[in-house]
Amino acid sequence: MAGTMKIKAFGQFSWFHFFCFIFLFNLFYFQLAGQQNQFDTDLLSPSFHQDRRDTLRKLLPENSCAILLSNPLRNRSNDVDFQYSQDPDFYYLTGLVEPNSLVIIFKSPVDIDGTKTNELIFVQERDPESEKWNGIRLGIPGVKKLGFETVMLNRDFENFSFPRNIDRILVKFPTDIRETGRKPGINWLVSKLKSKIEALEKEAEILPLIKILASLREIKKPEELLLLQKAVDISMEGLKEAIRAIEPGMKEYQAQSIVEFYFQYRGAEYPGYGSIAGSGLNSCILHYTTNRKTLREGDMIVMDMGAEYHGYTADITRSVPVNGKFTAEQKQIYDLVLKAQLDGIQKSRPGNSFYDPHKAAMDIITGGLLELGIIRETSEARRYFNHGTSHYLGLEVHDPGTYGQLKPGMVITVEPGVYIPENSPCDKKWWNIGIRIEDDILITEGEPVVMSGALPKSWQEIEKIMAEKSLFNTIK
Ligand code: GLY
Ligand code: MN
Ligand code: MN
Fold first, then answer.
1. Which of 120-134, 337-351, 373-387 has the lowest mean pLDDT?
2. Which residues pair with 4 in a beta bridge?
3. How far does the centroid of ligand 3 lie from the alpha carbon of residue 276, in Å?
4. Which among 180, 235, 405, 418 counts the fewest CB atoms within 10 Å?
């Protein structure tokens, strides 16, 4: 065959094989994607991240430093990786969205190579060949523009020594690291850090960092609330259109696709978590994400979806009848869950415990299930409402927090539910009804602010918009 040559170890070797080899070589060798967003103008500003570092610094003990590493790039299979997602703590403190980086924040200024500094970041080197494949890397000058004065290449971490006065190191190690063997990749940085820490062990105490970061991240700054509200607005728009469009015969994934269309179309980078569109028996599976079933007359569908916009994720659930009309039983359970949710929202006030919304919702649901004859004992309520009512929300759908008193600036979800799977020990007229109602609540000095409050919620409002036509009903 023309264009082939015989190479002993490879047998028949063609130009096609040669180009495949170059392509794969480049993918394997230069696959360190993870690109800084260079195009949006509403990202968190360098001064936001700087302020977060300064606030962390105030909370650090004397003679200490905090160390964080960037998330590893995660492999999907073979030479294909998942889209890069930065570690939320690392992003919160730096704004950098690249792998293979390590940041050190010192309590007080230290001497690094003759320069006084109170923070230091090691980043990946610019690489024109890699950047042709994977997009731009910031390199030292770019990371300086993010507000860091002392920026070094990650390979220079080899020569780094902890200043003599450091006797406490607060550290967060990345999880789920892939063995790439690349230098100076994340494995290399972690192993260097571990050996430097081991060498210090007698002189320095090693402490976890996550509690301090949780206490910072649980209170949202105005810049964060703007992004979170944008994520919520996009999610509401998508959910509203999906509720309009839902009809028997549609697939669960088609309902999902309508909501996610709005995520993409309105500029949200990702879904904040696996979208849940569970109908019929699937409405009773809390984190169902298969989304392949056909929607059937008489079924409920639980839609729990949230857009992630510039890192911040919404988390909203609406549960609606597939045919647009609630049955008497669906209406009774719906009103019970709604009453529990509204009471939970009323308990979302400063000074209350993080768990007060849950206690309120649980009491109402327990009373309602007893009244409807679905349970006979209070203790049976957990069978049908088997999850918590609230979690913090922010850079992560289950954001960190301290689980103490609620404070202004916190954002939590309030999301009670009742799920009665087939064969439950109650009248079968209740079987396969799964209903969750979830909103995103900002705690303020005054009334709780329902960030997702513009999305229809009562059964009357839901039936009203389900009677409207959607643009998506015209796609056959
Ligand atoms: N979407 C997951 C949750 O509501 O916690
Ligand atoms: Mn939630
Ligand atoms: Mn949710």
1. 120-134
2. 14
3. 8
4. 405
For a mutational test of ligand 1's pocket, the pick from 315, 341, 437, i.e. the residue with the most ligand atoms closer than 8 A to its C-beta, is 315
Q: What is the β-pairing status of strands 115-123 and 307-309?
A: unpaired
**Can you tell me whether residue 126 is helix, strand or coil?**
coil
State how beta strands 411-414 and 417-420 pair: unpaired
Residue whose Cα lies nearest atom 3 of ligand 1: it is: 315
Percentage of the chain lying above the pLDDT 90 cut: 82
Helix, strand, coil % in the chain, rounded to nearest 5: 40, 20, 40
Q: What token pair was written down for 401?
A: 């927090």
Pocket of ligand 1 (CB under 6 A): 273, 304, 315, 391, 397, 415, 438
User: Among 256, 286, 287, 437, which is best to mutate for testing ligand 1, by the most ligand atoms less than 8 A from CB?
Assistant: 287
Structure tokens at 273: 């978590």
Ligand 1 atom, smallest distance to 387 CA = 5
Ligand with minimal distance to 289 CA? 1
The DSSP output letter for 82 is P
C-alpha 396 to ligand 3 mean position (Å): 12
The strand pair at 205-208 and 300-305 is best described as unpaired
Helices (H), 78-161: 88-94, 128-134, 139-145
304 carries an active-site annotation: yes
Q: Is 398 an active-site residue?
A: yes
295-327: per-residue pLDDT in tens?
999 999 999 999 999 999 999 999 999 999 999
Q: Provide the pLDDT confidence category of residue 33 given band limits of 50, 70 and 90.
A: low
d(CA 111, CA 285): 56
pLDDT tier for residue 75 given thresholds of 50, 70 and 90: confident
Mean pLDDT of the chain: 92
379 residue type, one letter: S
Separation CA 283–CA 368 (nearest Å): 20
